[in-house]
Amino acid sequence: MRRLASQFLPLLVAGCIALPALAAEALADYAGSVPLTTRGGDAIHKLELPLAVYAGVQHADLRDVRVFNAAQELVPHALLAEAPPAPPPPPAFAPPVFALPGAPGKTVDQLDVRIEQRADGSVVSIRTRSPGGRSVPARPAAAYIVDATAIDSAIAVITPQWRVAPDNYLGSARVEASDDLKNWRTVVAGAPLAYLQQGQARLVQERIEFAPTRSRYYRLSFAPAAPELEGIAAASPPARLELRRQSLRVTGRAGTNPGEVEFDLRVRAPVDRVRLIVPQSNALAPVRLDTRPAPRGEWRVVVATVAYRIVRDGQEQASPAVPVAPNPSPYWRALVDQSGGGLGAAAPELEVSWPVRELIFLARGEGPFMLAFGRAEATAARLAPAMLVPGYREGMEATFPVADSGPARQGPPPSPPILPRIIGDADPKKVALWAALLVGVLLLAGMAWRLARQMKAGGASAARQSPPRE
User: Which of 333, 416, 404, 428 is nearest to 374 (CA)?
Assistant: First the structure.
C-alpha cells in the first residue's frame, strides 16, 4: 500500500501546482501593447490611458490591462478614479433686472437711457427717452440691465427666468459687462437658447455659460421674438474645472428600418456624453439613442433628445452634447423620428466623449516598460492607489512624472490556452481545489483497482497451492 501511495503522490502534488503555474502571464498573452518611457529615477509614474487601450481591451472594466518591464516581468499598477467627488454646488444669485425699452430703428447702443442710481452704484430705475426728451411709451424690451453690484464674486452662468414659459422657441443670447453703465464689453455672443418639443420628446437649453466674469453690471440681449424676461438666476463658476476628456466621432450607417442609424465605436470606453451631428442644415427631429454590448445583443434605451442644425439670424445653431450614465457599449443606434421628414438623406455622425482615465505604475526593473491590453481570460490584477502609493491622497498624482507613450501595437487577440477555455470565468482557486480532489479520487480508484488485482492474484495463488481433498 505504501508503495502504491508513493507512486501516485507525485501526481497529486503536480495537480495542485499545475493551475498556478499555468496562471503565469507574459507580454505575448496580450493582443496589444504601448511602449512607455520613464523619466528619471522616480518610483511612481503616470500616464493617460490612450485611445488604443479602449479599442483593444476585451473587458470594459479594464481588468485585462497590465504593465511589464523590459525583463517581461509584471509590475504593480493602479487606475485612478474616473472622476473626483462631486464639488459643492456653486453660489447662486438672483440680482435685480431692469428692462430697457427699445426705440424704432435704434440699436441698444443708440438708445438715450436715463439711469437713476443710489450712492453705492445700485440701480433704482432705467428709462429710455425720445429725442425730444419725452419718455418712450411701453415697447418690447431691446435689452435688460442686470444690477450685480451686490455680488462679490465672478459669474459664469446666467439662466433666464421668463414671465411665460417659452413654447418651441429657438434663439440666442448676448451678454455684455460694464462697470460704469457706459462702456460695455462682450462676454459671450450667440449663446444658444432652445425650448423645443415634438411629441413626447423635449429639449431645453437655457443655461448661458461663459468664462467667469466679475462686473458690476451685465446687459442681456436676445434674438427677435424672445419671451419677456422676468428675472435671471446667476451662478458662480464651479469649485473645480471641467474634467479633461477624450472624444471620438464616427459616421453612422443606415439600419434595416427607416430612420434607423447604427454606429460602431470600436472602443469600450465609459461614454457619458453623446451628440448626434446633423449633416443637413435646417433639419430637426426627435431622436432616441440605444446601445448594446454585442453585435447581436438586445438594444437598450439610453436617452431621448432632439437633434437639430438650424440657421437663425445668420448664425448656425446645433444641438449640444447630452449627458448620459457611463456606458461602455461599443454599439449604438439612433432612431430618428420620421414624422417630420427626419434629418435628411445623409447619415448623421455620433460624437461621444468620456473623462480621461489615468494609470499609475511602479517602475520596477529596467525599461522600456510596456502597457499591455487585450486578453479575454484575464482577471483583475490592479491595486488600489493607496496600496501602490503609501500615504496616497487625492490629487497627489499631479506630482508624479509622466511616462511618455509610443505607437500602439495591435494584433488579433491570442488564442487562450486549452485549460482557460475549459474553466471560463471560474475562480482559479476553486478550480485548483476541484482538480486536487479529482486527482485524489483517481488516486483512490487506482489504489482500489491495484489492491483488487493483488487480492485476486493472491486468491488464485492460494488455490493452486492447497492440496486436493481425498
Answer: 416
pLDDT of residue 87: 64
User: DSSP code of 32?
Assistant: E
**Beta strands 260-264; 315-318: pairing state:** unpaired
HSE value, Cβ hemisphere, 13 Å, CA-based, for 17: 5
Domains of the chain as residue ranges with CATH: 31-75+359-413 (no CATH), 92-235 (2.60.120.260), 245-355 (2.60.120.260)
* Overall pTM surpassing 0.90 (yes/no): no
Mean pLDDT for each 10-residue chunk of the chain (470 residues)? 46 42 75 92 92 94 95 94 65 89 61 68 65 53 89 93 88 93 92 86 89 94 88 84 84 92 95 94 94 93 93 84 94 93 90 94 93 93 92 86 91 57 55 74 80 71 57
C-alpha cell belonging to residue 229: 424676461
| The pLDDT of residue 128 | 60
Q: How far apart are CA 19 and CA 15, in angstroms?
A: 8
Q: How far apart are CA 346 and CA 468, in angstroms?
A: 105
Residue with C-alpha cell 435704434?
A: 106
pLDDT at 111: 55
In sequence order, which residues have a C-beta less than 8 Å from that of residue 466 and are 6 or more positions away? none
Output the CA–CA distances (angstroms, integers) from residue 463 to 136, 451, 452, 460, in the order listed: 135, 18, 17, 5
CA separation, residue 351 to residues 32, 264, 272, 433 (Å)? 25, 12, 11, 48
Q: Which grid coordinates belong to 174?
A: 448676448
Question: Quick one: which of 86, 85, 87, 83 has its CA closest to 357?
Answer: 83
Give the distance between the most distant pair of CA atoms in the chain.
Answer: 158
Q: For 107-163, where are the E strands, in sequence order? A: 112-117, 123-129, 141-147, 155-162
Cα-based angle 389, 395, 397 (whole degrees, multiple of 5): 50
User: Bridge-partner residues for 312, per DSSP?
Assistant: 315
3-state secondary structure 393-426: CCCHHHHCCECEECCCEECCCCCCCHHHHHHCCC
CA distances from 244 to 34, 63, 115, 210, 247 (A): 21, 23, 44, 18, 10
* pLDDT value for 214: 94
Question: In sequence order, what are the residues at sequence separation of 6 or more whose Cβ sits closer than 8 angstroms to the Cβ of residue 9?
Answer: none
